[in-house]
Amino acid sequence: MGHARTLSISLTGLDGTLVEVEADVSQGLPAFSLVGLPDSSTLQARERVRAAAARSGVRLAARRITINMTPAWQPKHGSGFDLAIAMAVVDAQGDLLTHLPGDTVLLGELGLDGRVRPVPGVLPALLAARTHGVTRAIVPEENLPEARLVEGMEVDGAGDLTSVLHRFGADVPPAPARGTLRLTAPERKSSERSRSPQLPDFADVIGQAQARRAAEVAAAGGHHLLLSGPPGAGKTMIASRVPGILPQLDIDDALTVSAIHSLAGRFDARDGLRRTAPFENPHHTATTAAVVGGGGGIALPGAISRAHAGVLFLDEAPEFPARVLEALREPLETGDITLHRARGVTRYPARFQLILAANPCPCGKAWGKGVDCTCSPLQRRRYAARLSGPVLDRVDMRVGVGPVDVRRSGPEDAEPSALIADRVRTARERQRRRYDGLPWTTNAHLPGPRLRREFAPEAPQRRLLDHAVAQGRLTLRGHDRVLRLAWTLADLDGSDRPGEGHIGTALTLREGEPR
Protein backbone atom coordinates (compact mmCIF):
# COMPACT_ATOMS: atom_id res chain seq x y z
CA MET A 1 0.00 0.00 0.00
CA GLY A 2 1.34 3.44 -0.85
CA HIS A 3 1.11 6.58 -2.88
CA ALA A 4 0.82 7.28 -6.63
CA ARG A 5 -0.02 10.17 -8.93
CA THR A 6 -1.45 10.75 -12.40
CA LEU A 7 -2.23 13.85 -14.44
CA SER A 8 -5.46 15.21 -15.87
CA ILE A 9 -6.84 18.56 -17.05
CA SER A 10 -9.47 20.81 -15.49
CA LEU A 11 -11.19 23.22 -17.88
CA THR A 12 -12.60 26.62 -17.01
CA GLY A 13 -14.01 27.78 -20.30
CA LEU A 14 -11.26 27.19 -22.86
CA ASP A 15 -8.52 27.68 -20.26
CA GLY A 16 -7.11 24.47 -18.84
CA THR A 17 -5.22 23.76 -15.63
CA LEU A 18 -2.97 20.76 -15.14
CA VAL A 19 -4.40 18.68 -12.28
CA GLU A 20 -2.27 16.25 -10.28
CA VAL A 21 -4.43 13.35 -9.08
CA GLU A 22 -2.81 11.86 -5.97
CA ALA A 23 -3.92 8.53 -4.51
CA ASP A 24 -3.02 7.36 -1.03
CA VAL A 25 -3.90 3.83 0.14
CA SER A 26 -3.26 3.36 3.85
CA GLN A 27 -4.31 1.35 6.89
CA GLY A 28 -7.64 2.23 8.43
CA LEU A 29 -11.33 1.65 8.12
CA PRO A 30 -12.36 1.05 4.47
CA ALA A 31 -13.27 4.37 2.89
CA PHE A 32 -12.95 6.18 -0.44
CA SER A 33 -12.51 9.94 -0.02
CA LEU A 34 -12.23 12.44 -2.85
CA VAL A 35 -10.97 15.94 -1.98
CA GLY A 36 -9.89 18.99 -3.96
CA LEU A 37 -13.22 20.79 -4.55
CA PRO A 38 -14.91 18.20 -6.80
CA ASP A 39 -18.45 18.88 -7.96
CA SER A 40 -21.16 16.23 -7.72
CA SER A 41 -20.35 14.59 -11.05
CA THR A 42 -16.65 14.35 -10.13
CA LEU A 43 -17.47 13.11 -6.62
CA GLN A 44 -19.52 10.26 -8.09
CA ALA A 45 -16.30 8.89 -9.60
CA ARG A 46 -15.90 6.82 -6.44
CA GLU A 47 -18.73 4.48 -7.43
CA ARG A 48 -17.78 4.39 -11.11
CA VAL A 49 -14.11 3.66 -10.36
CA ARG A 50 -14.88 0.92 -7.85
CA ALA A 51 -17.30 -0.89 -10.17
CA ALA A 52 -15.14 -0.45 -13.30
CA ALA A 53 -12.01 -1.73 -11.52
CA ALA A 54 -13.87 -4.82 -10.28
CA ARG A 55 -15.19 -5.59 -13.79
CA SER A 56 -11.63 -5.18 -15.13
CA GLY A 57 -10.12 -7.73 -12.75
CA VAL A 58 -8.73 -5.38 -10.08
CA ARG A 59 -10.49 -5.13 -6.75
CA LEU A 60 -9.80 -2.01 -4.74
CA ALA A 61 -8.19 -2.77 -1.40
CA ALA A 62 -10.33 -2.74 1.71
CA ARG A 63 -8.26 0.14 3.03
CA ARG A 64 -8.57 3.87 3.44
CA ILE A 65 -8.30 5.37 -0.06
CA THR A 66 -7.82 9.13 -0.32
CA ILE A 67 -7.78 11.01 -3.63
CA ASN A 68 -6.47 14.57 -3.66
CA MET A 69 -6.84 16.70 -6.78
CA THR A 70 -4.23 19.46 -6.87
CA PRO A 71 -4.52 22.47 -7.02
CA ALA A 72 -7.05 21.81 -4.28
CA TRP A 73 -8.34 25.40 -4.26
CA GLN A 74 -9.66 25.22 -7.83
CA PRO A 75 -13.11 23.69 -8.44
CA LYS A 76 -13.16 20.48 -10.50
CA HIS A 77 -16.16 19.51 -12.57
CA GLY A 78 -17.15 16.73 -14.93
CA SER A 79 -16.53 13.01 -15.20
CA GLY A 80 -13.35 13.25 -17.27
CA PHE A 81 -11.16 12.56 -14.21
CA ASP A 82 -12.41 8.97 -13.81
CA LEU A 83 -9.58 7.30 -15.73
CA ALA A 84 -6.88 9.30 -13.95
CA ILE A 85 -8.41 8.47 -10.53
CA ALA A 86 -8.70 4.75 -11.30
CA MET A 87 -5.11 4.43 -12.53
CA ALA A 88 -3.77 6.38 -9.55
CA VAL A 89 -5.59 4.08 -7.10
CA VAL A 90 -4.50 0.88 -8.85
CA ASP A 91 -0.90 2.11 -8.95
CA ALA A 92 -0.99 3.14 -5.28
CA GLN A 93 -2.12 -0.30 -4.16
CA GLY A 94 0.75 -1.92 -6.09
CA ASP A 95 -1.05 -3.64 -8.96
CA LEU A 96 1.03 -2.04 -11.75
CA LEU A 97 4.50 -3.17 -12.80
CA THR A 98 5.24 0.21 -14.39
CA HIS A 99 4.37 3.55 -12.88
CA LEU A 100 2.53 5.97 -15.09
CA PRO A 101 4.94 8.47 -16.63
CA GLY A 102 4.81 12.02 -15.36
CA ASP A 103 4.25 13.51 -18.81
CA THR A 104 1.00 11.69 -19.64
CA VAL A 105 -2.48 13.15 -19.22
CA LEU A 106 -5.42 10.80 -18.73
CA LEU A 107 -8.94 11.81 -19.77
CA GLY A 108 -12.08 9.70 -19.82
CA GLU A 109 -15.25 8.70 -18.02
CA LEU A 110 -15.61 5.12 -16.80
CA GLY A 111 -18.70 3.01 -17.27
CA LEU A 112 -19.65 0.48 -14.62
CA ASP A 113 -18.55 -2.28 -16.98
CA GLY A 114 -15.05 -0.80 -17.32
CA ARG A 115 -15.59 0.88 -20.65
CA VAL A 116 -13.86 4.24 -21.17
CA ARG A 117 -16.53 6.61 -22.39
CA PRO A 118 -16.01 9.86 -24.37
CA VAL A 119 -16.07 13.26 -22.68
CA PRO A 120 -16.59 16.75 -24.09
CA GLY A 121 -13.76 19.26 -24.31
CA VAL A 122 -10.90 16.93 -25.27
CA LEU A 123 -9.53 19.37 -27.85
CA PRO A 124 -9.21 22.39 -25.50
CA ALA A 125 -7.96 20.09 -22.72
CA LEU A 126 -5.09 18.75 -24.84
CA LEU A 127 -4.28 22.23 -26.14
CA ALA A 128 -3.95 23.30 -22.51
CA ALA A 129 -1.85 20.22 -21.69
CA ARG A 130 0.53 21.04 -24.53
CA THR A 131 0.86 24.58 -23.19
CA HIS A 132 1.93 23.10 -19.82
CA GLY A 133 4.63 21.00 -21.50
CA VAL A 134 2.82 17.66 -21.43
CA THR A 135 3.57 15.60 -24.53
CA ARG A 136 1.50 12.42 -24.16
CA ALA A 137 -2.15 11.63 -23.46
CA ILE A 138 -4.54 8.69 -23.14
CA VAL A 139 -8.10 9.50 -24.17
CA PRO A 140 -11.27 7.51 -24.96
CA GLU A 141 -11.17 5.82 -28.34
CA GLU A 142 -14.20 7.79 -29.50
CA ASN A 143 -12.33 11.04 -28.77
CA LEU A 144 -9.20 9.90 -30.63
CA PRO A 145 -9.93 11.73 -33.95
CA GLU A 146 -10.41 14.94 -31.98
CA ALA A 147 -7.27 14.40 -29.88
CA ARG A 148 -5.12 13.82 -32.95
CA LEU A 149 -5.90 17.34 -34.16
CA VAL A 150 -3.49 18.67 -31.51
CA GLU A 151 -0.02 18.81 -33.05
CA GLY A 152 2.94 17.89 -30.89
CA MET A 153 1.01 15.42 -28.73
CA GLU A 154 1.50 11.64 -28.69
CA VAL A 155 -2.05 10.37 -28.19
CA ASP A 156 -3.30 6.83 -27.46
CA GLY A 157 -6.89 5.69 -27.36
CA ALA A 158 -8.45 3.53 -24.65
CA GLY A 159 -11.58 1.48 -25.23
CA ASP A 160 -11.74 0.12 -21.69
CA LEU A 161 -9.89 0.19 -18.39
CA THR A 162 -8.46 -3.29 -18.96
CA SER A 163 -6.44 -2.17 -21.98
CA VAL A 164 -4.90 0.68 -19.98
CA LEU A 165 -4.08 -1.69 -17.10
CA HIS A 166 -2.38 -4.12 -19.50
CA ARG A 167 -0.32 -1.26 -20.92
CA PHE A 168 1.28 -0.69 -17.52
CA GLY A 169 1.79 -4.32 -16.54
CA ALA A 170 -1.29 -5.16 -14.46
CA ASP A 171 -2.05 -8.89 -14.22
CA VAL A 172 -5.71 -8.85 -15.20
CA PRO A 173 -7.71 -11.09 -17.53
CA PRO A 174 -8.57 -9.87 -21.03
CA ALA A 175 -11.62 -7.68 -21.31
CA PRO A 176 -14.79 -9.53 -22.32
CA ALA A 177 -16.34 -8.73 -25.67
CA ARG A 178 -18.82 -5.93 -25.29
CA GLY A 179 -21.56 -4.91 -27.67
CA THR A 180 -21.37 -1.46 -29.21
CA LEU A 181 -24.21 0.98 -29.46
CA ARG A 182 -25.37 1.56 -33.00
CA LEU A 183 -26.68 4.81 -34.37
CA THR A 184 -30.30 4.73 -35.36
CA ALA A 185 -31.08 5.67 -38.94
CA PRO A 186 -32.19 9.26 -38.14
CA GLU A 187 -29.06 9.88 -36.01
CA ARG A 188 -26.79 8.54 -38.73
CA LYS A 189 -28.36 10.81 -41.31
CA SER A 190 -28.03 13.80 -39.01
CA SER A 191 -24.36 13.00 -38.41
CA GLU A 192 -23.67 12.73 -42.13
CA ARG A 193 -25.35 16.08 -42.73
CA SER A 194 -23.19 17.73 -40.08
CA ARG A 195 -20.04 16.43 -41.72
CA SER A 196 -20.91 17.70 -45.18
CA PRO A 197 -23.27 20.66 -44.76
CA GLN A 198 -25.09 21.98 -47.81
CA LEU A 199 -25.10 25.75 -47.44
CA PRO A 200 -28.05 27.60 -49.04
CA ASP A 201 -27.24 29.66 -52.13
CA PHE A 202 -27.95 33.32 -52.87
CA ALA A 203 -29.16 32.21 -56.29
CA ASP A 204 -32.40 31.22 -54.55
CA VAL A 205 -33.12 34.83 -53.56
CA ILE A 206 -35.27 36.74 -56.03
CA GLY A 207 -34.87 40.51 -56.16
CA GLN A 208 -33.76 42.43 -53.03
CA ALA A 209 -30.65 43.87 -54.68
CA GLN A 210 -30.01 46.35 -51.87
CA ALA A 211 -30.30 43.74 -49.12
CA ARG A 212 -28.10 41.30 -51.06
CA ARG A 213 -25.49 44.04 -51.50
CA ALA A 214 -25.66 44.84 -47.77
CA ALA A 215 -25.12 41.16 -46.94
CA GLU A 216 -22.05 41.12 -49.21
CA VAL A 217 -20.64 44.23 -47.53
CA ALA A 218 -21.34 42.73 -44.10
CA ALA A 219 -19.50 39.53 -45.02
CA ALA A 220 -16.56 41.37 -46.60
CA GLY A 221 -15.84 43.49 -43.52
CA GLY A 222 -17.39 41.52 -40.65
CA HIS A 223 -20.08 44.15 -40.05
CA HIS A 224 -23.38 43.85 -38.18
CA LEU A 225 -26.64 44.13 -40.12
CA LEU A 226 -30.32 44.83 -39.41
CA LEU A 227 -32.86 43.70 -42.01
CA SER A 228 -36.30 45.24 -41.50
CA GLY A 229 -39.37 44.58 -43.57
CA PRO A 230 -42.74 42.81 -43.80
CA PRO A 231 -43.08 39.03 -43.41
CA GLY A 232 -42.16 36.99 -46.45
CA ALA A 233 -39.87 39.61 -48.00
CA GLY A 234 -36.77 37.40 -47.75
CA LYS A 235 -35.01 38.61 -44.59
CA THR A 236 -34.40 35.11 -43.23
CA MET A 237 -33.40 33.76 -46.65
CA ILE A 238 -30.72 36.43 -47.03
CA ALA A 239 -29.37 36.06 -43.49
CA SER A 240 -29.13 32.27 -43.68
CA ARG A 241 -27.03 32.56 -46.85
CA VAL A 242 -24.36 34.83 -45.41
CA PRO A 243 -22.22 31.92 -44.05
CA GLY A 244 -22.02 30.57 -47.60
CA ILE A 245 -20.11 33.66 -48.79
CA LEU A 246 -17.74 33.92 -45.83
CA PRO A 247 -14.16 32.71 -46.38
CA GLN A 248 -12.89 29.61 -44.63
CA LEU A 249 -11.56 30.08 -41.12
CA ASP A 250 -7.82 30.46 -40.66
CA ILE A 251 -6.00 27.99 -38.41
CA ASP A 252 -6.30 30.08 -35.24
CA ASP A 253 -10.03 30.66 -35.63
CA ALA A 254 -10.56 27.03 -36.66
CA LEU A 255 -8.86 25.82 -33.48
CA THR A 256 -10.87 28.21 -31.29
CA VAL A 257 -14.20 27.42 -32.95
CA SER A 258 -13.53 23.67 -32.83
CA ALA A 259 -12.54 23.92 -29.15
CA ILE A 260 -15.74 25.81 -28.27
CA HIS A 261 -17.92 23.28 -30.07
CA SER A 262 -15.97 20.43 -28.48
CA LEU A 263 -16.67 21.88 -25.04
CA ALA A 264 -20.35 22.20 -25.96
CA GLY A 265 -20.40 18.56 -27.15
CA ARG A 266 -21.18 19.53 -30.76
CA PHE A 267 -17.87 18.85 -32.51
CA ASP A 268 -17.43 16.03 -35.04
CA ALA A 269 -13.68 15.62 -35.55
CA ARG A 270 -13.86 13.04 -38.34
CA ASP A 271 -13.34 15.74 -40.98
CA GLY A 272 -10.68 17.64 -39.02
CA LEU A 273 -10.90 21.14 -37.65
CA ARG A 274 -14.03 23.09 -38.41
CA ARG A 275 -13.16 25.43 -41.28
CA THR A 276 -16.61 26.74 -42.20
CA ALA A 277 -17.96 29.79 -40.39
CA PRO A 278 -20.54 28.75 -37.75
CA PHE A 279 -24.14 29.93 -37.96
CA GLU A 280 -26.23 30.18 -34.79
CA ASN A 281 -29.95 30.91 -35.00
CA PRO A 282 -31.52 30.78 -31.50
CA HIS A 283 -35.29 30.98 -31.16
CA HIS A 284 -36.73 34.17 -29.73
CA THR A 285 -37.85 32.26 -26.61
CA ALA A 286 -34.20 31.50 -25.72
CA THR A 287 -33.06 32.54 -22.25
CA THR A 288 -30.15 34.82 -21.47
CA ALA A 289 -28.04 31.85 -20.35
CA ALA A 290 -28.77 30.00 -23.60
CA VAL A 291 -27.63 32.97 -25.69
CA VAL A 292 -24.68 34.40 -23.75
CA GLY A 293 -23.72 31.25 -21.83
CA GLY A 294 -24.26 30.01 -18.31
CA GLY A 295 -25.53 27.12 -16.25
CA GLY A 296 -24.86 25.82 -12.77
CA GLY A 297 -21.31 25.76 -11.45
CA ILE A 298 -18.92 26.50 -14.30
CA ALA A 299 -20.66 28.36 -17.14
CA LEU A 300 -20.93 26.65 -20.53
CA PRO A 301 -20.67 28.50 -23.87
CA GLY A 302 -23.84 30.05 -25.23
CA ALA A 303 -24.96 30.81 -28.78
CA ILE A 304 -22.78 33.94 -29.05
CA SER A 305 -19.64 31.90 -28.30
CA ARG A 306 -20.65 29.06 -30.59
CA ALA A 307 -21.06 31.74 -33.29
CA HIS A 308 -17.48 32.98 -32.76
CA ALA A 309 -15.86 33.83 -36.12
CA GLY A 310 -19.25 33.27 -37.75
CA VAL A 311 -22.81 34.59 -37.77
CA LEU A 312 -25.32 35.04 -34.95
CA PHE A 313 -28.77 35.50 -36.50
CA LEU A 314 -31.65 36.73 -34.35
CA ASP A 315 -34.84 36.30 -36.34
CA GLU A 316 -37.81 38.29 -35.07
CA ALA A 317 -35.31 40.29 -32.99
CA PRO A 318 -37.89 42.52 -31.21
CA GLU A 319 -39.52 39.37 -29.82
CA PHE A 320 -36.38 38.44 -27.87
CA PRO A 321 -36.42 39.31 -24.15
CA ALA A 322 -34.90 42.70 -23.43
CA ARG A 323 -32.31 41.11 -21.12
CA VAL A 324 -31.03 38.95 -23.98
CA LEU A 325 -30.68 41.87 -26.39
CA GLU A 326 -29.04 44.14 -23.81
CA ALA A 327 -26.59 41.38 -22.87
CA LEU A 328 -25.16 41.61 -26.41
CA ARG A 329 -23.79 45.11 -25.85
CA GLU A 330 -20.42 44.20 -24.33
CA PRO A 331 -19.65 41.22 -26.61
CA LEU A 332 -20.37 43.37 -29.67
CA GLU A 333 -17.70 45.82 -28.50
CA THR A 334 -15.08 43.57 -26.90
CA GLY A 335 -15.39 40.31 -28.85
CA ASP A 336 -15.61 38.12 -25.74
CA ILE A 337 -17.94 37.38 -22.84
CA THR A 338 -17.00 37.03 -19.17
CA LEU A 339 -19.43 35.02 -17.04
CA HIS A 340 -19.27 35.29 -13.26
CA ARG A 341 -20.58 32.34 -11.28
CA ALA A 342 -20.28 31.23 -7.67
CA ARG A 343 -17.70 28.58 -8.58
CA GLY A 344 -15.54 30.75 -10.80
CA VAL A 345 -15.19 33.27 -13.58
CA THR A 346 -15.25 31.97 -17.15
CA ARG A 347 -14.29 33.83 -20.30
CA TYR A 348 -15.30 32.74 -23.79
CA PRO A 349 -14.47 34.35 -27.14
CA ALA A 350 -17.56 35.87 -28.79
CA ARG A 351 -16.40 37.79 -31.87
CA PHE A 352 -19.47 37.10 -33.95
CA GLN A 353 -21.17 38.90 -36.82
CA LEU A 354 -24.69 39.91 -35.74
CA ILE A 355 -27.61 39.87 -38.17
CA LEU A 356 -31.02 41.00 -36.92
CA ALA A 357 -34.33 40.57 -38.71
CA ALA A 358 -37.38 42.56 -37.65
CA ASN A 359 -40.89 43.35 -38.81
CA PRO A 360 -41.96 47.02 -38.99
CA CYS A 361 -44.75 46.47 -36.45
CA PRO A 362 -46.45 43.62 -34.53
CA CYS A 363 -48.75 42.74 -37.42
CA GLY A 364 -45.95 43.22 -39.94
CA LYS A 365 -47.95 45.28 -42.43
CA ALA A 366 -46.73 48.79 -41.63
CA TRP A 367 -44.73 49.03 -44.83
CA GLY A 368 -45.07 51.72 -47.46
CA LYS A 369 -48.33 53.53 -46.78
CA GLY A 370 -49.29 50.88 -44.24
CA VAL A 371 -52.96 50.93 -45.18
CA ASP A 372 -53.42 47.30 -44.15
CA CYS A 373 -51.72 47.73 -40.77
CA THR A 374 -54.02 47.12 -37.79
CA CYS A 375 -51.55 48.39 -35.15
CA SER A 376 -52.05 51.65 -33.29
CA PRO A 377 -49.24 54.27 -33.29
CA LEU A 378 -48.52 53.38 -29.65
CA GLN A 379 -48.14 49.70 -30.52
CA ARG A 380 -45.74 50.56 -33.32
CA ARG A 381 -43.61 52.76 -31.06
CA ARG A 382 -43.47 50.14 -28.34
CA TYR A 383 -42.54 47.46 -30.85
CA ALA A 384 -39.75 49.59 -32.34
CA ALA A 385 -38.49 50.47 -28.85
CA ARG A 386 -37.79 46.81 -28.10
CA LEU A 387 -34.54 47.29 -30.02
CA SER A 388 -32.95 49.86 -27.75
CA GLY A 389 -30.81 52.75 -28.94
CA PRO A 390 -27.54 51.37 -27.45
CA VAL A 391 -28.05 48.06 -29.26
CA LEU A 392 -28.95 49.70 -32.59
CA ASP A 393 -25.98 52.04 -32.26
CA ARG A 394 -23.73 48.98 -32.42
CA VAL A 395 -25.32 47.77 -35.68
CA ASP A 396 -23.40 49.00 -38.74
CA MET A 397 -26.13 48.76 -41.39
CA ARG A 398 -29.91 49.11 -41.29
CA VAL A 399 -31.52 48.00 -44.52
CA GLY A 400 -35.17 47.88 -45.47
CA VAL A 401 -36.37 44.71 -47.22
CA GLY A 402 -39.64 45.44 -48.98
CA PRO A 403 -42.00 43.15 -50.89
CA VAL A 404 -40.62 41.73 -54.13
CA ASP A 405 -42.24 42.61 -57.46
CA VAL A 406 -42.12 39.20 -59.14
CA ARG A 407 -43.07 40.77 -62.47
CA ARG A 408 -39.77 42.70 -62.53
CA SER A 409 -37.57 40.05 -60.92
CA GLY A 410 -36.71 36.54 -61.92
CA PRO A 411 -34.26 33.73 -61.20
CA GLU A 412 -31.97 35.06 -63.93
CA ASP A 413 -31.35 38.20 -61.83
CA ALA A 414 -30.08 36.19 -58.85
CA GLU A 415 -26.32 35.94 -58.42
CA PRO A 416 -24.94 32.66 -57.02
CA SER A 417 -23.06 32.58 -53.74
CA ALA A 418 -19.86 31.42 -55.45
CA LEU A 419 -19.45 34.72 -57.32
CA ILE A 420 -20.22 36.79 -54.24
CA ALA A 421 -17.82 34.69 -52.17
CA ASP A 422 -15.00 35.43 -54.64
CA ARG A 423 -15.48 39.18 -54.18
CA VAL A 424 -15.68 38.78 -50.40
CA ARG A 425 -12.50 36.69 -50.39
CA THR A 426 -10.67 39.32 -52.45
CA ALA A 427 -11.79 42.12 -50.12
CA ARG A 428 -10.76 40.11 -47.04
CA GLU A 429 -7.35 39.49 -48.59
CA ARG A 430 -6.86 43.22 -49.12
CA GLN A 431 -7.67 43.80 -45.45
CA ARG A 432 -5.32 41.02 -44.36
CA ARG A 433 -2.45 42.58 -46.29
CA ARG A 434 -3.25 46.08 -45.01
CA TYR A 435 -3.34 44.98 -41.38
CA ASP A 436 -0.42 42.55 -41.63
CA GLY A 437 1.40 42.43 -38.31
CA LEU A 438 -1.53 44.02 -36.43
CA PRO A 439 -3.83 42.14 -34.03
CA TRP A 440 -6.89 42.39 -36.32
CA THR A 441 -7.64 41.26 -39.87
CA THR A 442 -11.00 42.86 -40.79
CA ASN A 443 -12.25 46.43 -41.00
CA ALA A 444 -14.96 45.81 -38.38
CA HIS A 445 -12.32 45.21 -35.70
CA LEU A 446 -10.16 48.25 -36.51
CA PRO A 447 -9.87 50.27 -33.24
CA GLY A 448 -11.39 53.74 -33.26
CA PRO A 449 -8.20 55.69 -32.36
CA ARG A 450 -6.21 54.02 -35.14
CA LEU A 451 -9.15 54.44 -37.52
CA ARG A 452 -9.36 58.19 -36.92
CA ARG A 453 -5.60 58.70 -36.95
CA GLU A 454 -3.88 56.41 -39.44
CA PHE A 455 -6.79 55.27 -41.60
CA ALA A 456 -8.89 58.44 -41.73
CA PRO A 457 -9.86 59.81 -45.17
CA GLU A 458 -9.00 63.37 -46.10
CA ALA A 459 -11.16 66.17 -44.65
CA PRO A 460 -12.91 67.10 -47.96
CA GLN A 461 -14.04 63.48 -48.37
CA ARG A 462 -15.53 63.40 -44.87
CA ARG A 463 -17.86 66.37 -45.35
CA LEU A 464 -21.07 64.34 -45.31
CA LEU A 465 -19.92 62.32 -42.32
CA ASP A 466 -18.82 65.34 -40.28
CA HIS A 467 -22.10 67.09 -41.11
CA ALA A 468 -24.09 64.07 -39.83
CA VAL A 469 -22.15 64.11 -36.55
CA ALA A 470 -22.62 67.89 -36.18
CA GLN A 471 -26.39 67.50 -36.69
CA GLY A 472 -26.54 64.80 -34.01
CA ARG A 473 -27.62 62.10 -36.47
CA LEU A 474 -24.52 60.05 -35.62
CA THR A 475 -22.76 59.29 -32.36
CA LEU A 476 -18.98 59.01 -32.27
CA ARG A 477 -19.42 55.24 -32.32
CA GLY A 478 -21.62 55.62 -35.40
CA HIS A 479 -18.98 57.86 -36.99
CA ASP A 480 -16.37 55.12 -36.58
CA ARG A 481 -18.68 52.42 -37.88
CA VAL A 482 -19.45 54.45 -41.02
CA LEU A 483 -15.72 54.86 -41.65
CA ARG A 484 -15.18 51.11 -41.27
CA LEU A 485 -18.03 50.50 -43.70
CA ALA A 486 -16.46 52.94 -46.16
CA TRP A 487 -13.17 51.01 -45.99
CA THR A 488 -15.02 47.79 -46.78
CA LEU A 489 -16.81 49.37 -49.73
CA ALA A 490 -13.43 50.60 -51.00
CA ASP A 491 -11.99 47.09 -50.63
CA LEU A 492 -14.86 45.63 -52.64
CA ASP A 493 -14.25 48.25 -55.34
CA GLY A 494 -10.49 47.65 -55.34
CA SER A 495 -9.70 51.21 -54.18
CA ASP A 496 -6.68 52.01 -52.03
CA ARG A 497 -8.60 54.40 -49.79
CA PRO A 498 -12.30 55.24 -49.35
CA GLY A 499 -13.54 58.23 -51.32
CA GLU A 500 -16.48 60.55 -50.83
CA GLY A 501 -18.76 58.16 -52.70
CA HIS A 502 -17.83 55.27 -50.43
CA ILE A 503 -18.49 57.38 -47.34
CA GLY A 504 -21.85 58.55 -48.72
CA THR A 505 -22.91 54.99 -49.46
CA ALA A 506 -21.77 53.86 -46.02
CA LEU A 507 -23.74 56.68 -44.40
CA THR A 508 -26.84 55.65 -46.34
CA LEU A 509 -26.45 52.03 -45.24
CA ARG A 510 -25.97 53.17 -41.66
CA GLU A 511 -28.97 55.51 -41.53
CA GLY A 512 -31.27 53.56 -43.80
CA GLU A 513 -34.67 53.08 -42.20
CA PRO A 514 -37.69 51.27 -43.65
CA ARG A 515 -40.25 53.60 -45.16
Q: Looking at CATH, which topology of the largest domain would you report?
A: Rossmann fold
CATH superfamily of the largest domain: P-loop containing nucleotide triphosphate hydrolases
Net shape: elongated
Oligomer: single chain
Helix content percent band: 25-40%
Radius of gyration: 28 Å
CATH architecture of the largest domain: 3-Layer(aba) Sandwich
User: What is the count of distinct domains?
Assistant: 3
Query: Beta-strand percentage?
Result: 15-25%
Number of H- or I-type helical stretches: 21
CATH class of the largest domain: Alpha Beta
How does this structure look, described?
The chain is 36% helix and 17% strand. By secondary structure, the protein is an alpha/beta fold. It has 3 domains: 3-167, Ribosomal Protein S5, domain 2 (2-Layer Sandwich), CATH 3.30.230.10; 202-421, Rossmann fold (3-Layer(aba) Sandwich), CATH 3.40.50; 446-515, no CATH class. The strands form 6 sheets. Strands 11-14-17-10-18 form a 5-stranded parallel beta sheet. A 4-stranded mixed beta sheet has the order 1-2-4-3. The chain has a 3-stranded parallel beta sheet with strand order 5-8-9, with helices on both faces. Helix 8 packs parallel to helix 17. The protein is elongated and about 85 Å long.
